[in-house]
Amino acid sequence: MAVAIITGSGTHSLPGWQLAQAEPVRTPYGSVDVSRGELAGVEVLHVSRHGAGHVRLSNQVMHRADIWALHELGASAAIGCTACGAVDPSLALGSLVVFDDLHFLSNRLPDGSLCTFFEEPGDPRRGQWILHGSPFSDGVRAALLVGAAESGHGARDGGVYGHVDGPRFNTPSEIAQLAACGVVAVSQTGGPETVLCGELELPYALIGMV
Q1: What Rg do the C-alpha atoms of the chain give, in angstroms?
Q2: How many CB atoms lie within 10 A of CB 122?
Q3: If we measure between CA atoms, which residue out of 207, 3, 203 comes closest to residue 100?
Q4: Strands 30-39 and 18-27
Q5: Which of 17, 55, 81, 205 could form a disulfide with 140 if both were Cys (CB 3.0 to 4.6 A apart)?
Q6: What is the full per-residue pLDDT of the chain (210 aa) written as tens digits?
């Protein structure tokens, strides 16, 4: 089973690819370019949120199409990678965070619609996702932490990820409000991915580079 990697700003391809091939995948939410190949001996599916050349800003990312395509192609787990802004001043620039909680109050997609796949009343797949524990997969989080340690670039274990709407950045007062909620770092794409992967029961974890 393949592992999906979703990359963001500044990362539109993966180093070390073997036999990588890009293919357009049609979904009910639009077409997505997915690269399939091997990385360190593991089958990998790769999606670049913003596309080559960063053609899509955060308000144009097709979250539902991205996640649906990865699920349709048989991904067994997904890793979200995000360049994030530090809210916690103890985070060093260039450091990594493997988040364990989510602040995403709006629960909206970039177009303003609610963040869900299941919009039709009576859809048997619909449900109310209970986030009493971590919204991220414990197994994927553990693998990220081990991988970071083995690479010699350790990562902070845990912290609240704050999803903020783009394309603008935040004001000092908005950041102060997020800090008061325990948010340690923010970016503009991780919230919808977390929720949508949860709806499709695709194990997902988010790693941030500060």
Answers
A1: 16
A2: 6
A3: 207
A4: antiparallel
A5: 205
A6: 799 999 987 666 677 776 677 789 999 999 999 999 888 889 999 999 988 778 788 999 999 999 999 999 999 999 999 999 999 999 999 999 999 999 999 999 999 999 999 888 877 777 777 777 789 999 999 999 999 999 999 899 999 999 999 999 999 999 999 999 999 999 999 999 999 999 999 999 999 999
Closest CA to 34 of 16, 53, 18, 13: 13
Cα–Cα distance measured from residue 28 to residue 30, given in angstroms and rounded to the nearest whole number: 6
**pTM exceeds 0.90 for this model:** yes
Phi, psi of 199 (to 5 degrees): -65, -35
Dist. CA 129–CA 112, nearest whole Å = 20
Residue identified by tokens 């008061």 is 180
Which strands form 75-83's sheet, in the order they lie side by side? 18-27, 30-39, 42-48, 2-7, 75-83, 204-209, 96-98, 155-157
